[in-house]
Amino acid sequence: MTETTLRIRGHFLDEFLRHAEQSAGTADISASELMDPARAGAWLADASAGKTRTRNSLYGPEAAAYSNSMRVRIDSYNAFAEFLCLPGRLESQAPASGFYLTPADTERLLHDLAVRRPVHANAATSLRTAAVAALVTDTGINVPELARLKVSALHLDGEAHIDLGDEACPLGSATVQILNRWLLARAEIIAELEGSDPGHLWIPTKPGRPRGGQPPVKPGVTRAAVRTLHAAHRTLVSQVLGTPLRPGAFRVSVQSRSRGGSGMTAAPGLE
Question: At residue 164, does pLDDT exceed 50?
């Protein structure tokens, strides 16, 4: 399984264990007791009703869980039962279609993210968010995978592309322009460091929090965490669009994305 799949399944299995411990009033639960179908059913019922949610959503903290989240919970339970060699599986669900922007809406929103910085928004954070969204659009890769990229993976001259493992994905002119602007903002942050450039493509734009009595870490020393990229995306898109929107909604089909093999075209105002 991919690192992303492991992370998501681990999250939902942790949720299942916490729910079981709270229901039983004890942490002393055997594996066979934990995997009782009735216990799993109670967990899924509460999760579906939004009772296990740890953060707010677009529709409020008590909104019903998204169908694909429930599907992954079931798949995680079944995979764990198989690992433990225990009988009994929950009935799996078919994947539901996610929400995706049309190519035209994607280009329009990326343009707004890059040039319409909301009042009080950090300029570097806005550019970084637009650059991440542009790469999601052109590559179809999710944020956790893009978060590990190095600057050296970018090739923005000539036939612009990005190295993704053993493959090269072409980049459209709008994406190239947004990335170039982010790299300029990134260079200003890196210039404040003592020592060489660590090479991470995505870096924090503000100092980290002081921890353990130590001074805050300067932006640029470490790469930006996935949760940081997601939080910045949610905040900025909410300010620009009026509603939050997951980065995955920027993905489009290969046919729409390629535009003749060149990725996104330049959006008005970015040239």
Answer: yes
| Paired tokens of 47 | 């999760």
Token pair of 46, please? 């509460």
Q: What's the Cα-to-Cα distance from 21 to each of 10, 16, 40, 62, rounded to whole Å?
A: 16, 9, 12, 21
- Radius of gyration of the chain from its Cα atoms, rounded to whole angstroms: 21
What Cα–Cα distance (Å) separates residue 68 from each residue in 73, 143, 211, 212? 9, 18, 37, 39
Q: Round to whole Å and give the CA distance between 125 and 116.
A: 13
Going from the C-alpha of 160 to that of each of 5, 134, 170, 262, 264, the distances in angstroms are 30, 14, 6, 8, 11
Chain CA centroid to CA 135, Å: 12
Q: How far apart are CA 197 and CA 215, in angstroms?
A: 20
Nearest alpha-carbon partner for 202 in 190, 215, 214: 190
- Spatial distance between the Cα atoms of 255 and 246, rounded to a whole number of angstroms: 22
pLDDT per position as a tens digit, 232-249 = 888 888 777 766 677 877
pLDDT in tens, 97-123: 666 677 788 888 888 888 877 667 788
Question: Would you place residue 45 in the very low, low, confident or very high pLDDT band (cuts 50, 70, 90)?
Answer: very high
Residue spans of beta strands (DSSP E) within the chain: 154-155, 161-164, 167-170
Helix, strand counts (H, E) of the chain: 10, 3
Tokens of 31: 């594996």
- Asked if residues 146 and 228 have their Cβ atoms less than 8 Å apart, the reply is no
**Two tokens, residue 203:** 């870096």
Tell whether the torsion through CA atoms of 135, 138, 144 and 145 is positive or negative: negative
